[in-house]
Amino acid sequence: MAERIGLTGLYVLALSALLFPAPANLGLLAMVLATIARGRDFLQWLRQAPAAWLAFGFTAYVLLRGAAEIAVGGLAPAEAWKPITGWALLGMAPIVAYWCGGREDRCRMLFALCLVGMLVQALRSMDAAALDRISSLHREHFGLRLLGAPLYASIALLGLAIFRRRIFWWIGQFRARSWRFAIYVTLVLVFAYLLLMFILPQSRSSWVAALIAFPVAGFGLLLSHRNRSRRQILSRIAIATAAVLLIGAALAPFLGHMVVKRIGSESATWEAIMEGRWEEAPYTSIGRRVHMTANGISWFAEDPVFGIGPGGVESRLKALDQLSIHEDLHNSYLDLAVEMGLVGAMLLLGFLLWSYWTLLRTFAVGCVSADMFWFLTGSLVIYLLVATMNTRLVNVDGQFSWLLLTGIVLSLSQWGDRNRIADSQEELAAFTHSR
Protein backbone atom coordinates (compact mmCIF):
# COMPACT_ATOMS: atom_id res chain seq x y z
CA MET A 1 0.00 0.00 0.00
CA ALA A 2 2.78 2.43 0.92
CA GLU A 3 4.59 1.68 -2.34
CA ARG A 4 1.46 2.36 -4.38
CA ILE A 5 0.90 5.68 -2.61
CA GLY A 6 4.54 6.69 -3.00
CA LEU A 7 4.70 5.89 -6.72
CA THR A 8 1.35 7.60 -7.35
CA GLY A 9 2.65 10.70 -5.59
CA LEU A 10 5.83 10.57 -7.68
CA TYR A 11 3.91 10.45 -10.96
CA VAL A 12 1.49 13.18 -9.84
CA LEU A 13 4.44 15.38 -8.92
CA ALA A 14 6.05 14.86 -12.34
CA LEU A 15 2.83 15.54 -14.26
CA SER A 16 1.99 18.65 -12.21
CA ALA A 17 5.50 20.06 -11.80
CA LEU A 18 5.03 22.60 -14.61
CA LEU A 19 1.23 22.56 -14.59
CA PHE A 20 -0.47 23.04 -11.20
CA PRO A 21 1.40 23.60 -7.91
CA ALA A 22 -1.40 22.22 -5.71
CA PRO A 23 -1.35 18.64 -7.12
CA ALA A 24 2.45 18.73 -7.14
CA ASN A 25 2.46 19.57 -3.44
CA LEU A 26 -0.04 16.79 -2.79
CA GLY A 27 2.14 14.35 -4.70
CA LEU A 28 5.16 15.34 -2.62
CA LEU A 29 3.12 15.01 0.58
CA ALA A 30 1.98 11.51 -0.47
CA MET A 31 5.60 10.50 -1.04
CA VAL A 32 6.64 11.86 2.36
CA LEU A 33 3.86 9.95 4.14
CA ALA A 34 4.64 6.75 2.23
CA THR A 35 8.33 7.18 3.08
CA ILE A 36 7.48 7.50 6.77
CA ALA A 37 5.44 4.30 6.52
CA ARG A 38 8.52 2.55 5.13
CA GLY A 39 10.86 4.15 7.63
CA ARG A 40 13.16 1.17 8.22
CA ASP A 41 13.74 0.54 4.51
CA PHE A 42 14.27 4.25 3.88
CA LEU A 43 16.84 4.52 6.67
CA GLN A 44 18.69 1.55 5.21
CA TRP A 45 18.71 3.31 1.83
CA LEU A 46 19.98 6.51 3.46
CA ARG A 47 23.01 4.68 4.83
CA GLN A 48 24.07 4.06 1.24
CA ALA A 49 23.33 7.65 0.13
CA PRO A 50 25.62 10.01 2.08
CA ALA A 51 24.81 12.93 -0.25
CA ALA A 52 21.18 12.74 0.88
CA TRP A 53 22.21 13.85 4.36
CA LEU A 54 23.50 17.12 2.91
CA ALA A 55 20.12 17.73 1.27
CA PHE A 56 18.20 17.04 4.46
CA GLY A 57 20.75 19.13 6.34
CA PHE A 58 20.00 22.05 4.02
CA THR A 59 16.26 21.75 4.67
CA ALA A 60 16.83 21.61 8.43
CA TYR A 61 19.14 24.62 8.23
CA VAL A 62 16.56 26.64 6.28
CA LEU A 63 13.85 25.84 8.83
CA LEU A 64 16.11 26.81 11.74
CA ARG A 65 17.27 29.96 9.97
CA GLY A 66 13.69 30.96 9.21
CA ALA A 67 12.60 30.30 12.79
CA ALA A 68 15.46 32.47 14.03
CA GLU A 69 14.39 35.33 11.75
CA ILE A 70 10.81 35.09 13.01
CA ALA A 71 12.01 35.01 16.62
CA VAL A 72 14.07 38.21 16.29
CA GLY A 73 11.34 39.97 14.29
CA GLY A 74 13.24 40.04 11.02
CA LEU A 75 10.47 38.12 9.26
CA ALA A 76 6.76 38.43 9.96
CA PRO A 77 5.05 35.06 10.57
CA ALA A 78 2.42 35.84 7.91
CA GLU A 79 5.15 36.43 5.32
CA ALA A 80 7.40 33.56 6.39
CA TRP A 81 5.73 30.63 4.63
CA LYS A 82 6.68 31.43 1.03
CA PRO A 83 10.41 32.24 1.46
CA ILE A 84 11.04 29.45 3.97
CA THR A 85 9.29 26.71 1.99
CA GLY A 86 10.79 28.08 -1.23
CA TRP A 87 14.25 27.09 -0.03
CA ALA A 88 13.32 24.16 2.23
CA LEU A 89 11.66 22.17 -0.57
CA LEU A 90 14.95 22.02 -2.49
CA GLY A 91 16.35 19.61 0.08
CA MET A 92 13.57 17.05 -0.41
CA ALA A 93 15.25 15.47 -3.44
CA PRO A 94 16.15 12.27 -1.49
CA ILE A 95 12.43 11.52 -1.17
CA VAL A 96 12.11 11.63 -4.97
CA ALA A 97 15.31 9.60 -5.32
CA TYR A 98 14.04 6.88 -3.00
CA TRP A 99 10.84 6.37 -4.99
CA CYS A 100 12.66 6.45 -8.32
CA GLY A 101 14.36 3.30 -7.06
CA GLY A 102 17.36 3.63 -9.38
CA ARG A 103 15.22 2.48 -12.32
CA GLU A 104 15.88 4.21 -15.62
CA ASP A 105 12.52 3.23 -17.10
CA ARG A 106 10.80 4.97 -14.19
CA CYS A 107 13.00 8.03 -14.62
CA ARG A 108 12.19 8.26 -18.32
CA MET A 109 8.50 8.04 -17.44
CA LEU A 110 8.94 11.04 -15.13
CA PHE A 111 10.51 13.09 -17.92
CA ALA A 112 7.68 12.12 -20.28
CA LEU A 113 5.06 13.17 -17.71
CA CYS A 114 6.85 16.49 -17.20
CA LEU A 115 6.79 17.08 -20.95
CA VAL A 116 3.07 16.30 -21.12
CA GLY A 117 2.36 18.66 -18.22
CA MET A 118 4.41 21.43 -19.81
CA LEU A 119 2.63 21.09 -23.15
CA VAL A 120 -0.79 21.03 -21.48
CA GLN A 121 0.09 24.21 -19.57
CA ALA A 122 1.31 25.87 -22.77
CA LEU A 123 -1.85 24.91 -24.67
CA ARG A 124 -4.06 26.10 -21.80
CA SER A 125 -2.56 29.57 -22.15
CA MET A 126 -3.34 29.79 -25.85
CA ASP A 127 -5.89 32.43 -26.80
CA ALA A 128 -6.31 34.95 -29.60
CA ALA A 129 -3.83 37.37 -28.03
CA ALA A 130 -1.21 34.66 -27.54
CA LEU A 131 -1.63 33.44 -31.10
CA ASP A 132 -1.21 37.01 -32.37
CA ARG A 133 1.99 37.41 -30.36
CA ILE A 134 3.35 34.12 -31.70
CA SER A 135 2.47 34.95 -35.31
CA SER A 136 4.08 38.41 -34.97
CA LEU A 137 7.18 36.92 -33.26
CA HIS A 138 6.70 38.89 -30.03
CA ARG A 139 7.78 37.53 -26.65
CA GLU A 140 5.38 34.86 -25.36
CA HIS A 141 5.46 33.01 -22.04
CA PHE A 142 3.52 29.88 -23.17
CA GLY A 143 1.71 29.59 -19.85
CA LEU A 144 4.94 29.47 -17.83
CA ARG A 145 7.14 32.15 -16.34
CA LEU A 146 8.61 34.07 -19.27
CA LEU A 147 12.17 32.90 -18.63
CA GLY A 148 11.09 29.44 -17.52
CA ALA A 149 9.58 28.37 -20.84
CA PRO A 150 12.85 28.36 -22.86
CA LEU A 151 14.71 26.63 -20.02
CA TYR A 152 12.32 23.68 -19.92
CA ALA A 153 11.87 23.64 -23.70
CA SER A 154 15.63 23.33 -24.21
CA ILE A 155 15.77 20.39 -21.77
CA ALA A 156 12.83 18.76 -23.57
CA LEU A 157 14.52 19.22 -26.95
CA LEU A 158 17.69 17.69 -25.53
CA GLY A 159 15.67 14.71 -24.32
CA LEU A 160 14.02 14.19 -27.71
CA ALA A 161 17.42 14.30 -29.40
CA ILE A 162 19.17 11.90 -27.01
CA PHE A 163 16.30 9.43 -26.56
CA ARG A 164 15.29 9.49 -30.25
CA ARG A 165 16.25 5.84 -30.83
CA ARG A 166 14.14 4.71 -27.89
CA ILE A 167 11.26 6.86 -29.11
CA PHE A 168 11.43 5.44 -32.64
CA TRP A 169 11.71 1.91 -31.24
CA TRP A 170 8.61 2.52 -29.09
CA ILE A 171 6.68 3.87 -32.08
CA GLY A 172 7.68 0.82 -34.09
CA GLN A 173 5.90 -1.43 -31.58
CA PHE A 174 2.53 -0.24 -32.92
CA ARG A 175 1.36 -2.61 -35.62
CA ALA A 176 -1.20 -0.29 -37.18
CA ARG A 177 0.45 2.00 -39.72
CA SER A 178 -2.15 4.69 -39.05
CA TRP A 179 -1.17 4.80 -35.38
CA ARG A 180 2.52 5.13 -36.23
CA PHE A 181 1.78 7.90 -38.72
CA ALA A 182 -0.34 9.80 -36.17
CA ILE A 183 2.40 9.54 -33.54
CA TYR A 184 5.05 10.74 -35.98
CA VAL A 185 2.92 13.76 -36.92
CA THR A 186 2.33 14.53 -33.24
CA LEU A 187 6.06 14.24 -32.58
CA VAL A 188 6.85 16.73 -35.36
CA LEU A 189 4.27 19.18 -34.01
CA VAL A 190 5.65 18.83 -30.48
CA PHE A 191 9.18 19.45 -31.76
CA ALA A 192 8.07 22.58 -33.63
CA TYR A 193 6.15 23.88 -30.62
CA LEU A 194 9.12 23.29 -28.30
CA LEU A 195 11.33 25.15 -30.76
CA LEU A 196 8.99 28.15 -30.57
CA MET A 197 8.97 27.91 -26.77
CA PHE A 198 12.75 27.96 -26.83
CA ILE A 199 13.10 30.94 -29.19
CA LEU A 200 10.16 33.31 -28.74
CA PRO A 201 10.60 34.17 -25.02
CA GLN A 202 13.99 35.56 -26.15
CA SER A 203 15.95 34.32 -23.14
CA ARG A 204 19.61 34.88 -23.96
CA SER A 205 20.73 32.83 -20.95
CA SER A 206 18.79 29.80 -22.23
CA TRP A 207 20.23 30.25 -25.71
CA VAL A 208 23.80 30.36 -24.39
CA ALA A 209 23.19 27.43 -22.03
CA ALA A 210 21.76 25.28 -24.84
CA LEU A 211 24.63 26.28 -27.13
CA ILE A 212 27.03 24.81 -24.55
CA ALA A 213 24.97 21.87 -23.26
CA PHE A 214 23.94 20.32 -26.58
CA PRO A 215 27.51 19.81 -27.88
CA VAL A 216 28.66 18.59 -24.46
CA ALA A 217 25.89 15.98 -24.26
CA GLY A 218 26.13 15.08 -27.94
CA PHE A 219 29.89 14.58 -28.09
CA GLY A 220 29.85 12.79 -24.75
CA LEU A 221 27.20 10.38 -25.98
CA LEU A 222 29.12 9.67 -29.19
CA LEU A 223 32.40 9.07 -27.40
CA SER A 224 30.68 6.77 -24.90
CA HIS A 225 30.07 4.21 -27.65
CA ARG A 226 33.61 2.89 -27.80
CA ASN A 227 32.67 0.10 -30.19
CA ARG A 228 32.07 2.61 -32.96
CA SER A 229 34.83 3.44 -35.39
CA ARG A 230 36.17 6.93 -35.89
CA ARG A 231 34.42 7.05 -39.24
CA GLN A 232 31.05 6.31 -37.66
CA ILE A 233 31.58 8.98 -35.01
CA LEU A 234 32.60 11.58 -37.60
CA SER A 235 29.63 10.72 -39.79
CA ARG A 236 27.22 11.16 -36.89
CA ILE A 237 28.82 14.48 -35.99
CA ALA A 238 28.44 15.58 -39.60
CA ILE A 239 24.78 14.51 -39.67
CA ALA A 240 24.03 16.35 -36.41
CA THR A 241 25.83 19.49 -37.62
CA ALA A 242 24.00 19.39 -40.94
CA ALA A 243 20.65 18.99 -39.16
CA VAL A 244 21.35 22.01 -36.93
CA LEU A 245 22.46 24.11 -39.91
CA LEU A 246 19.40 23.04 -41.90
CA ILE A 247 17.02 23.99 -39.08
CA GLY A 248 18.88 27.28 -38.60
CA ALA A 249 18.73 28.09 -42.30
CA ALA A 250 15.01 27.32 -42.39
CA LEU A 251 14.29 29.56 -39.38
CA ALA A 252 16.70 32.38 -40.24
CA PRO A 253 14.36 34.24 -42.64
CA PHE A 254 11.64 34.31 -39.99
CA LEU A 255 13.53 34.59 -36.70
CA GLY A 256 17.01 35.81 -37.59
CA HIS A 257 16.22 39.52 -37.26
CA MET A 258 14.56 38.99 -33.87
CA VAL A 259 17.52 37.02 -32.50
CA VAL A 260 20.10 39.55 -33.72
CA LYS A 261 18.09 42.45 -32.34
CA ARG A 262 17.70 40.74 -28.96
CA ILE A 263 21.41 39.95 -28.66
CA GLY A 264 22.46 43.47 -29.62
CA SER A 265 19.85 45.33 -27.55
CA GLU A 266 22.18 45.92 -24.59
CA SER A 267 25.08 47.69 -26.31
CA ALA A 268 24.90 50.75 -24.02
CA THR A 269 24.82 48.52 -20.96
CA TRP A 270 27.82 46.48 -22.04
CA GLU A 271 29.72 49.66 -22.92
CA ALA A 272 29.20 51.03 -19.39
CA ILE A 273 30.25 47.71 -17.85
CA MET A 274 33.38 47.35 -19.97
CA GLU A 275 34.46 50.90 -19.10
CA GLY A 276 34.01 50.25 -15.38
CA ARG A 277 31.01 52.56 -15.09
CA TRP A 278 28.58 49.90 -13.89
CA GLU A 279 26.85 52.42 -11.59
CA GLU A 280 25.79 54.29 -14.73
CA ALA A 281 24.44 51.19 -16.46
CA PRO A 282 20.86 51.80 -17.63
CA TYR A 283 18.12 49.77 -15.96
CA THR A 284 17.64 47.42 -18.90
CA SER A 285 17.42 43.64 -18.69
CA ILE A 286 21.18 43.20 -18.24
CA GLY A 287 21.58 46.53 -16.43
CA ARG A 288 19.13 45.55 -13.73
CA ARG A 289 21.08 42.36 -13.13
CA VAL A 290 24.27 44.38 -12.79
CA HIS A 291 22.72 46.63 -10.15
CA MET A 292 21.12 43.67 -8.35
CA THR A 293 24.45 41.84 -8.32
CA ALA A 294 26.21 44.85 -6.82
CA ASN A 295 23.55 45.16 -4.11
CA GLY A 296 23.61 41.41 -3.49
CA ILE A 297 27.36 41.40 -2.93
CA SER A 298 27.07 44.21 -0.38
CA TRP A 299 24.24 42.37 1.43
CA PHE A 300 26.25 39.14 1.43
CA ALA A 301 29.11 40.98 3.13
CA GLU A 302 26.82 41.78 6.08
CA ASP A 303 26.68 38.12 7.18
CA PRO A 304 28.61 35.85 4.81
CA VAL A 305 28.42 32.78 7.04
CA PHE A 306 24.71 32.48 7.89
CA GLY A 307 23.15 34.98 5.46
CA ILE A 308 20.48 37.60 6.02
CA GLY A 309 17.72 34.97 6.24
CA PRO A 310 14.95 33.72 3.93
CA GLY A 311 12.90 36.52 2.38
CA GLY A 312 15.59 39.11 3.09
CA VAL A 313 16.39 39.79 -0.56
CA GLU A 314 12.79 40.52 -1.56
CA SER A 315 12.21 42.90 1.35
CA ARG A 316 15.38 44.84 0.54
CA LEU A 317 14.66 45.03 -3.18
CA LYS A 318 11.27 46.56 -2.43
CA ALA A 319 13.07 49.44 -0.73
CA LEU A 320 14.91 50.28 -3.97
CA ASP A 321 12.88 52.37 -6.41
CA GLN A 322 14.35 51.00 -9.63
CA LEU A 323 14.35 47.36 -8.46
CA SER A 324 11.18 47.19 -6.35
CA ILE A 325 9.32 45.07 -8.91
CA HIS A 326 11.73 42.14 -8.46
CA GLU A 327 11.50 39.36 -5.89
CA ASP A 328 15.02 37.98 -6.32
CA LEU A 329 18.47 38.88 -7.61
CA HIS A 330 18.07 36.94 -10.87
CA ASN A 331 21.05 34.79 -9.87
CA SER A 332 20.33 31.58 -8.00
CA TYR A 333 23.82 31.33 -6.53
CA LEU A 334 23.86 34.91 -5.29
CA ASP A 335 20.34 34.57 -3.88
CA LEU A 336 21.41 31.41 -2.08
CA ALA A 337 24.59 32.95 -0.67
CA VAL A 338 22.89 36.19 0.43
CA GLU A 339 19.91 34.59 2.18
CA MET A 340 21.40 31.30 3.41
CA GLY A 341 25.06 32.28 3.68
CA LEU A 342 28.02 30.06 2.98
CA VAL A 343 26.59 27.36 5.25
CA GLY A 344 23.44 26.96 3.14
CA ALA A 345 25.34 27.29 -0.15
CA MET A 346 27.85 24.61 0.82
CA LEU A 347 25.09 22.22 1.92
CA LEU A 348 22.98 22.56 -1.25
CA LEU A 349 25.79 22.75 -3.80
CA GLY A 350 27.72 20.07 -1.90
CA PHE A 351 24.72 17.76 -2.25
CA LEU A 352 24.56 18.40 -5.99
CA LEU A 353 28.29 17.95 -6.61
CA TRP A 354 28.52 14.81 -4.48
CA SER A 355 25.48 13.29 -6.20
CA TYR A 356 26.86 14.00 -9.66
CA TRP A 357 30.33 12.71 -8.78
CA THR A 358 28.80 9.46 -7.56
CA LEU A 359 26.65 9.30 -10.72
CA LEU A 360 29.81 9.70 -12.81
CA ARG A 361 31.46 6.79 -10.99
CA THR A 362 28.33 4.68 -11.39
CA PHE A 363 28.27 5.45 -15.12
CA ALA A 364 31.96 4.57 -15.42
CA VAL A 365 31.32 1.00 -14.23
CA GLY A 366 28.34 0.55 -16.57
CA CYS A 367 25.45 0.80 -14.11
CA VAL A 368 23.86 3.77 -15.91
CA SER A 369 23.17 3.88 -19.64
CA ALA A 370 25.03 6.43 -21.77
CA ASP A 371 21.91 8.18 -23.04
CA MET A 372 20.53 8.71 -19.53
CA PHE A 373 23.86 9.91 -18.14
CA TRP A 374 24.47 12.45 -20.89
CA PHE A 375 20.87 13.64 -20.81
CA LEU A 376 21.20 14.33 -17.09
CA THR A 377 24.56 16.00 -17.65
CA GLY A 378 23.21 18.24 -20.40
CA SER A 379 20.12 19.10 -18.35
CA LEU A 380 22.25 20.09 -15.36
CA VAL A 381 24.48 22.22 -17.58
CA ILE A 382 21.44 24.05 -18.95
CA TYR A 383 19.83 24.46 -15.54
CA LEU A 384 22.98 25.62 -13.74
CA LEU A 385 24.04 28.06 -16.48
CA VAL A 386 20.59 29.64 -16.68
CA ALA A 387 20.72 29.97 -12.88
CA THR A 388 23.45 32.59 -13.27
CA MET A 389 21.01 34.98 -14.96
CA ASN A 390 17.67 33.91 -13.56
CA THR A 391 16.37 32.46 -10.30
CA ARG A 392 14.13 29.48 -10.93
CA LEU A 393 14.98 27.66 -7.72
CA VAL A 394 12.67 29.68 -5.49
CA ASN A 395 9.85 29.83 -8.05
CA VAL A 396 7.10 27.21 -7.99
CA ASP A 397 8.02 25.59 -11.30
CA GLY A 398 11.72 25.65 -10.47
CA GLN A 399 11.26 23.96 -7.09
CA PHE A 400 9.56 20.89 -8.49
CA SER A 401 11.70 20.60 -11.62
CA TRP A 402 14.81 20.84 -9.40
CA LEU A 403 13.41 18.11 -7.13
CA LEU A 404 12.85 15.77 -10.06
CA LEU A 405 16.18 16.43 -11.77
CA THR A 406 18.36 16.18 -8.66
CA GLY A 407 16.27 13.32 -7.27
CA ILE A 408 16.88 11.28 -10.41
CA VAL A 409 20.61 12.09 -10.33
CA LEU A 410 20.80 10.94 -6.70
CA SER A 411 18.71 7.81 -7.34
CA LEU A 412 20.78 6.57 -10.27
CA SER A 413 24.04 7.37 -8.52
CA GLN A 414 23.52 5.01 -5.59
CA TRP A 415 25.59 1.83 -5.42
CA GLY A 416 22.97 0.20 -3.24
CA ASP A 417 20.47 0.12 -6.10
CA ARG A 418 22.57 -2.03 -8.42
CA ASN A 419 19.95 -4.78 -8.58
CA ARG A 420 17.21 -2.34 -9.52
CA ILE A 421 19.48 -0.58 -12.01
CA ALA A 422 20.34 -3.98 -13.45
CA ASP A 423 16.65 -4.46 -14.26
CA SER A 424 16.81 -1.32 -16.37
CA GLN A 425 20.02 -2.51 -17.99
CA GLU A 426 18.33 -5.78 -19.01
CA GLU A 427 15.64 -3.72 -20.73
CA LEU A 428 18.35 -1.63 -22.39
CA ALA A 429 20.18 -4.74 -23.56
CA ALA A 430 16.97 -6.11 -25.06
CA PHE A 431 16.39 -2.79 -26.81
CA THR A 432 19.94 -2.70 -28.18
CA HIS A 433 19.69 -6.32 -29.36
CA SER A 434 16.44 -5.53 -31.18
CA ARG A 435 18.26 -2.88 -33.17
How would you describe what is shown here?
This protein has 435 residues and is mostly helical. The chain is globular, with a radius of gyration of 22 Å. The C terminus is likely disordered.
Order of helices and strands: HHHHHHHHHHHHHHHHHHHH
Overall shape: it is globular
Fraction of residues in helix = over 70%
Secondary-structure content class: mainly alpha
Q: Roughly what fraction of the amino acids lie in strands?
A: under 5%
Radius of gyration, in angstroms, nearest whole number: 22 Å
Largest sheet properties: none
Could you tell me how far the N terminus lies from the C terminus, measured between alpha carbons in angstroms? Answer: 38 Å
pLDDT < 50 stretches:
416-428, 430-435
- Total helical segments: 20
Report the strand count: 0
Mean pLDDT: 84
Number of domains: 1
Key terms:
0% strand; 435 residues; mainly alpha; disordered C terminus; 20 helices
